[in-house]
Amino acid sequence: MSRALELFMEKASVREEVREAVRELAERPLKEILAYMIRGEVDSTGLYKFLYEKLPDGYPKERFKKFFEMERSHDLEVSRLFRTLFPGEGVPDVRLKSWARVFWERDYRLGTVGDYLKVLQIGMDAEQLSEMVYKMLAELLENPEHKKLMESLAEDEREHYEFLKAEYDFYSKIERQKALKELIDEIKKEDG
Fold it and tell me: How far apart are CA 25 and CA 2, in angstroms?
């Protein structure tokens, strides 16, 4: 892994789990990195589809629909690149952690703001991982068109992360205010 990517991870306050996944991917051959990203894009498509379909009114459903469509196009772009670089070869199964699969494998429900925050955290981790891996791929690939594609995908993932983080920060504040109110009400009961 390049020093530039290491510095980016430090500066971006990337969680250790995500850093470890990037380090592990950096040791893999290009074919496996691309295969992982194809799976990651399919997972992200599922995440945004889930949010679009399951969120109640009042949440940014249309934004998640846009992200769902973008991630689906990312999947197609990365798959096309894989076929270009490895014609006639199948996409290998790469066994690394998948953030987005966690919630739909358990029939996850969005019943509370806390549930929404958990899904947002999964999405933020997945988007940071994707951004870093696309940056790594941009460094590895020699073809200028392929580099440009990876840089563009990294920018998209950064945009998704920034939106998810803003949502997370906003709803975290609401959760903290709710918890504080409950604590104050509890103290008043005890004193009363």
Answer: 12
* Whether the Cβ atoms of residue 127 and residue 104 lie closer than 8 Å to each other: no
Alpha-carbon dihedral sign for residues 166, 168, 174, 177? negative
pTM: 0.79
DSSP count for the chain of H helices, then E strands: 7, 0
Q: Which residue has the tokens 């390049």?
A: 2
Structure tokens at 82: 């894989």
Contacts of 24 by beta carbon, 8 Å cutoff, 6+ apart: 96
- With H, G, I as helix, E, B as strand and everything else as coil, classify residue 111: coil
- Rounded Cα distance between 192 and 186, Å, is 10
- How many Cα atoms are found within 13 Å in the side-chain-facing hemisphere of 74? 32
Does residue 9 carry a pLDDT above 70? no
C-beta of residue 117 within 8 angstroms of C-beta of residue 171: yes
